[in-house]
Structure formats: C-alpha cells, structure tokens
C-alpha cells in the first residue's frame, strides 16, 4: 500500500487512508470540525529548535542538508513510532503524511524524509 505525502489543506483523495498530521505545531485557526487529518503526531515533526533554525529565529537560517541531517538524527528517537507506521503500511493500510500548508515542495520537507524512513523500515521487517 502506498505512503502519500501531502499538505494538510490538500483535499482528501480516494486512497489517502489514514491521514496523519506530522507537524510540531497544530495549524492555527482550524476547529476540530475542520480538521482534515485523522490524528496528529507532533513528535514526528521537527523539534521546536530545528523548526526555529530553518526560519532563522536563532541566527542565519540553516540549509536543506543541515536540516535533513538534524531531522534524521531526531527521528532516531522515534524508531518505535516509525516501526508502527511501517507495520501498518506493510499490513495493507494506506497512510498519508500531512505537513504545513506553507510547505509546497515535498522534496524539501520532512514528510519526504519520514516517508523514506518508513519505507526503509518496511524492507527491514
């Protein structure tokens, strides 16, 4: 089954399956009734410190390669959670990883990195 990676405000599509919001911060101004996701797991989003570093809130903004390295290091703490997602997908469940509405380039987003981690975990099982 597929693992999709989209933004939380992208319309739901057939085959999305379990829509999982993976941002550290919950989208502002969205009521529970307007949520487009099934669950929110903020621990799969970049840490507050990493998020701030990307936007230059504590110095110059960091680049993609530094961000990628730091995010992957943070996700070592989430090995069990990533393994849970890998088992769900391997068992036939479709999962859609959702990120910020402002995150337009999937290739430069932690959702693409997390998708790869889940897929790698599936090949180990």
Can you offer a commentary on this structure?
With 125 residues, the chain is α/β, with parallel strands linked by helices. 37% of the residues lie in helices and 13% in strands. The chain contains four helices and four strands; from the N terminus they run βββαααβα. The protein has helices spanning 48-54, 64-75, 79-90, 110-124; strands at 3-7, 18-21, 39-40, 95-99. Helix 3 (79-90) packs across helix 4 (110-124). The model has no long low-confidence stretch (mean pLDDT 92).
Task: Please render the helix and strand layout as text.
Layout: E1 3-7, E2 18-21, E3 39-40, H1 48-54, H2 64-75, H3 79-90, E4 95-99, H4 110-124
Parallel strand pairs: 1-4, 2-3, 2-4
Helix pairs in contact: 3-4
How would you concisely characterize the structure shown here?
The chain is of the alpha/beta class and 125 residues long.
């Amino acid at each position: 089954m597929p693992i999709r990676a989209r933004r939380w405000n992208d319309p739901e599509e057939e085959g999305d399956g379990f829509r999982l919001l993976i941002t550290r911060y919950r989208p502002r101004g969205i009521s529970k009734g307007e949520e487009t996701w099934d669950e929110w797991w903020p621990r799969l989003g970049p840490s507050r410190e990493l998020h701030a570093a990307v936007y230059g809130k504590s110095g110059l903004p960091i680049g993609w390669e530094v961000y990628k390295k730091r995010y992957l290091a943070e996700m070592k703490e989430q090995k069990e959670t990533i393994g849970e997602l890998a088992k769900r997908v391997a068992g036939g469940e479709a999962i859609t990883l959702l990120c910020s509405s402002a995150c337009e380039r999937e290739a430069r987003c932690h959702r693409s990195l997390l998708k790869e981690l889940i897929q790698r975990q599936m090949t180990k099982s």
